[in-house]
Design a protein that fits this description.
Blueprint lengths: L21 E2 L7 H5 L2 H10 L2 E4 L4 E4 L2 H8 L5 E2 L12 H7 L17 H12 L2 H6 L1 H17 L4 E2 H6 L1 H11 L6 H8 L2 H6 L4 H27 L5 H11 L6 H14 L2 H15 L2 H9 L4 H11 L5 E6 L3 E3 L2 E3 L4 E5 H5 L34 H18 L4 E2 L20 E3 L3
Parallel strand pairs: 1-2, 3-9
Antiparallel strand pairs: 2-3, 4-6, 5-11, 6-9, 7-8, 10-11
Bound molecules: protoporphyrin IX containing FE.
Length: about 425
C-alpha cells in the first residue's frame, strides 16, 4: 500500500485543458448561483452539458447520465482531489499544514483502489445498522432538549444555531466515541472546514482554518491513543480492534485518518440537510401538515428534499488519462466538477423535475450521496438522524413556521448548500 496525503495543498493554479468547449462565466461562487443555482444549471445542462468553466478551472458535468458515468469509472475519473482546497492556498497557511506531525493520509473519499476497498470493508462494518440504531435514544433526547431550550425563549429563533448546527456534531462525536465535554472545542475546530476545501477563504481565514485543522488532528491522535488503552462501545474502538487483529491490513495511521475525516463528513452536510428540509417543507404548509399527521411519509419526503434541495450540489474528480464524456474530449489531469444539483433536476431522469413532490415514487434515485465505490458511507446514518429530528419536531412543534421574507444566505462554496440561518416561529 502507498499512503497519499489527506489534503494535496497547491500554491499555484492548474493550466486549463485544451480541446473542450469553453464557458467564460460559470462559477458556483457567483452571488446569483449561491442565491439560486437551478436556473443557471438548467442552462448549462440543456445547452452545454460538458463544458470547461474558465473562472472555476473545472470541466462541469450537469446531466445525470454523464454524472453517473463519471462516478462509475473511478479508474479514469479519480476522486484524489475531493478534499483539496479548490483554489491555491497562501504560503502562511500551507506552512502551518507542513508541520511534521500534520500527517493524516487519504483513507476514504479521496483514496484510490485497491486501498480504498481494503479500508472501506472496515469502515462499512463500523457503520452497521446496529451501531446506528444505538444512537436513536440519544438523538431523540438531544433533539427534545434543544427544542425545550428553544421554547424557553421568545420566537422567532434561528433554527440553525438552536438545533440544526449543534445536533449533528454531537451525534457523530458520540458515534466516534469523543466525550461530551469536548463538544464545544471540537465544533470550534471543525466549524470552518467547509471554507478551506470548497470555498475561497481570505489569507487570514486560511491561516485560522489551518491552525484549527492542525489542532483537531493533534486531538484525534491523542484521543486514538487513549482509546487504545481504554476502549469503549464506539466506532473508534471498533476500528482499533480491527487494526489490532489485522495490523498489516489496516494501519494505525489509517485509523487516525478515518476519524479525522469524519470531523467534516459526519455533520456539516446533515446540518444543511436539516435546514433545507425545513425551508422546503415549512413553505408548503399542506405538505407539512400531511407529514405531521402521517409521519410514515417522512422517509420519502426526505428523499425528495435530497433530490430537489440537496445539501450537496457539487463534487469533484480528476482525470487519470485522456478520455471522452458525451462527445467531448477531456485530457488527462483535468479537474471535473459534477453538478449533483443539476443531475437531480434532469428532466431526462425525473418527470416534472423542477416540481417538489412529496409523493414522488422515484425520489430515491437522487444522486446526492454519490454512486459507485465511494457511495456515501453515512447515507443511512444521515437519513436516520434527520428523520428522527423531523419526527420529534412534527410531534412536539407542529405549529413551527418560517418567518416571511428572510434572507437565508447559503455560505458561498462549490459543493454544499443550505441556509446559514433560518428564523422560525411557533404558536405559544
Ligand atoms: C445529508 C448528508 C450527507 C450527504 C448529502 C453526503 C454526501 C456524500 C457524497 C456525495 C459523498 C461522495 C461520494 C463519491 O465520491 O462518490 C460522500 C462520501 C462519504 N460520506 Fe457522506 N454525506 C452525508 C452525510 C454523511 C454522514 C452523516 C457521514 C458519516 C457519519 C458521511 C460519511 C461519508 C464518508 C466516510 C464518505 C466517503 C466514502 C468512501 O469514499 O468510500 N456522510 N457523502
Amino acid at each position: 500500500m502507498t499512503d497519499t496525503d489527506y489534503h494535496n495543498i497547491r500554491t499555484t493554479a492548474l493550466a486549463p485543458p485544451t480541446g473542450c468547449p469553453f464557458d467564460p462565466s460559470f462559477t458556483p461562487l457567483a452571488g446569483d448561483y449561491v442565491a439560486d443555482p437551478y436556473p443557471i444549471l438548467e442552462r448549462l445542462r440543456e445547452e452545454q452539458p460538458v463544458v470547461y468553466a474558465e473562472p472555476l478551472g473545472f470541466v462541469v458535468v450537469t446531466r445525470m447520465a454523464d454524472v453517473e458515468e463519471v462516478f462509475l469509472n473511478p479508474d479514469v475519473f479519480s476522486s484524489a482531489n475531493v478534499q483539496d482546497p479548490v483554489f491555491p492556498i497562501c504560503g502562511e497557511a500551507a506552512a502551518i499544514l507542513a508541520a511534521d506531525d500534520f500527517n493524516p493520509v487519504a483513507v476514504m473519499s479521496n483514496r484510490q483502489e485497491p486501498d480504498h476497498g481494503r479500508i472501506r470493508q472496515y469502515t462499512k462494518k463500523g457503520f452497521s445498522n446496529r451501531r446506528t440504531r444505538t444512537l436513536e435514544p440519544y438523538i431523540r433526547r438531544r433533539t427534545s432538549e434543544l427544542i425545550d431550550e428553544m421554547l424557553v425563549g421568545t420566537p422567532p429563533t434561528d433554527f440553525i444555531s438552536a438545533l440544526a448546527y449543534p445536533l449533528p456534531g454531537e451525534v457523530v462525536f458520540r458515534f466516534m466515541g469523543f466525550p461530551e465535554s469536548d463538544d464545544q472545542q471540537l465544533k470550534d475546530w471543525c466549524a470552518n472546514r467547509l471554507a478551506f476545501s470548497w470555498g475561497q477563504p481570505t489569507a487570514e481565514e486560511q491561516v485560522e482554518i489551518a491552525e484549527n485543522m492542525l489542532a483537531y488532528w493533534r486531538y484525534v491522535r491523542e484521543f486514538t491513543a487513549a482509546k487504545r488503552q481504554a476502549p469503549g462501545d464506539d466506532f473508534a474502538s471498533e476500528l482499533l480492534a480491527d487494526h489490532a487483529a489485522n495490523p498489516d491490513d489496516l494501519s494505525y495511521r489509517e485509523v487516525e485518518s478515518i476519524l479525522y475525516g469524519l470531523s467534516f463528513a459526519g455533520h456539516e452536510p446533515v446540518t444543511l440537510l436539516l435546514g433545507n428540509a425545513l425551508i422546503t417543507l415549512l413553505s408548503r404548509r399542506d405538505e407539512w401538515e400531511e407529514l405531521c399527521s402521517n409521519p410514515d411519509l417522512l422517509a420519502g419526503a426526505l428523499d425528495e428534499v435530497l433530490r430537489w434541495n440537496s445539501p450537496q450540489i457539487g463534487w469533484r474528480r480528476i482525470t487519470t488519462r485522456d478520455t471522452t464524456l458525451g462527445d467531448v474530449s477531456i485530457p488527462k489531469g483535468t479537474q471535473v466538477f459534477l453538478s449533483l444539483g443539476a443531475a437531480n433536476r434532469d428532466p431526462r431522469e425525473f418527470p416534472e423535475a423542477d416540481t417538489f413532490d412529496l409523493h414522488r415514487a422515484d425520489a430515491r434515485n437522487n444522486i446526492s450521496f454519490g454512486k459507485g465505490n465511494h457511495y456515501c458511507l453515512g447515507a443511512k446514518f444521515a437519513r436516520f438522524e434527520v428523520r428522527i429530528v423531523l419526527e420529534v419536531l412534527a410531534e412536539r412543534l407542529p405549529s413551527i413556521s418560517l418567518v416571511d421574507g428572510q434572507a437565508t444566505d447559503p455560505f458561498p462554496n462549490i459543493s454544499f448548500r443550505g441556509p446559514s440561518s433560518l428564523m422560525v416561529t411557533w404558536d405559544q
